[in-house]
Write a structure and sequence with these properties.
The chain has about 90 residues and is α+β, with helices and mostly antiparallel strands. The chain is built from two helices and three strands, in the order H-H-E-E-E.
């Protein structure tokens, strides 16, 4: 069975005022709406995670290029610190 949308003429011939949506059709419409909304949210999350991944790869590359004696700025909430690249120790800067 092939499904198709009604043409404008068919809609006018039926008369939209008297048209009722069957429960089965409304359930399908609702399911589609939920799935579409979920797809949209997942696409936004994928974009966000891709951006985060890109940022982490950039930071990782910068760390690989850093000299071993350099202190690397490390930000903690409300307090700054530096990480010693050789020992991995954290030293407070405040």
């Amino acid at each position: 069975m092939q499904r198709r949308m009604l043409s404008k003429e068919d809609e006018k011939a039926i008369g939209n005022d008297d048209l009722e949506v069957r429960r089965e059709d409304q359930d399908k419409i609702n399911k589609f709406s939920r799935l579409h909304q979920r797809e949209t949210l997942l696409e936004e999350e994928m974009k966000s995670r891709a951006k985060e991944k890109e940022d982490l790869e950039e930071v990782s590359n910068e760390l690989e290029l850093a000299d071993e004696d350099d202190k690397i700025p490390y930000e903690k909430p409300r307090k700054g610190a530096c990480v010693d690249q050789l020992t991995g120790g954290v030293k407070g800067t405040n």
